[in-house]
Design goal:
The radius of gyration is 23 Å and the shape is elongated. The N and C termini lie far apart (about 60 Å). It has about 190 residues and is mostly beta strands. β6 and β7 form a beta hairpin. It contains two helices and 14 strands, in the order αβββββββββββββαβ.
């Protein structure tokens, strides 16, 4: 085949496939959905239950493969265990996964701790106290649909904290570890 003929054949193949004649049709833009979210997390090591929300989840779903990406936004939560109280901020979290036949996804949550008090007295952990690496949760749901939302659950590990000043050792003795649970309800 001559060079000019090859170039013409390649250009025709590209044009035809771009029009959707060779293979599946091109998918449209992602579908945007926004959900209200409330829930709880149980932090195993200090045996603490933390109420989460109300917050929001914004997702963009590619309808062909039903893959999505989005963001969880939750307000800070106050946690008290014995004589110690702290404000815990989860996220905003980035989430990606699949919503075909349920819901599976991976969410990455920065975790910060602030406003710590011990016996009612302030305990300075500084402005940057948080997990050294974001917490990763593998979230699943059997009842989730894009139109109705659903219940999401996860079991996850909290890693070590850093940048908490002299309180770093105290926070690391009290919080990090496996066996933590997350339960969230998403409502459109």
């Amino acid at each position: 085949m001559k060079r000019g003929t090859r170039v013409t054949a390649v250009a025709t193949a590209v044009l035809v496939s771009g029009l959707g004649f060779a293979g599946t049709a091109a998918a449209g833009p992602p579908v945007y959905t926004k959900y209200a979210v409330v829930g709880t997390t149980h932090v195993a090591k200090p045996d603490a239950n933390v109420k989460l929300g109300p917050g929001t989840v914004e997702m963009y779903t590619d309808i062909g493969p039903y893959t999505y990406s989005g963001t969880f936004t939750l307000p800070p939560a106050r946690v008290t265990v014995g004589a110690v109280s702290a404000t815990v901020t989860l996220g905003p979290a980035r989430i990606e996964g699949s919503s075909f036949g349920g819901f599976t996804g991976t969410a990455t949550w920065p975790v910060r701790v602030s406003d710590v008090t011990v016996g009612g007295a302030p305990y300075d952990v500084g402005p940057a106290c948080g997990t050294a690496q974001p917490v990763t949760t593998e979230i699943t749901s059997a009842d989730f649909t894009l139109s109705t939302g659903g219940h999401l659950t996860s079991t996850y590990t909290i890693g070590a904290f850093a940048n908490c000043g002299p309180g770093t050792a105290l926070v690391n003795a009290a919080v990090p570890g496996p066996g933590n649970t997350l339960a969230l309800t998403l409502t459109p």
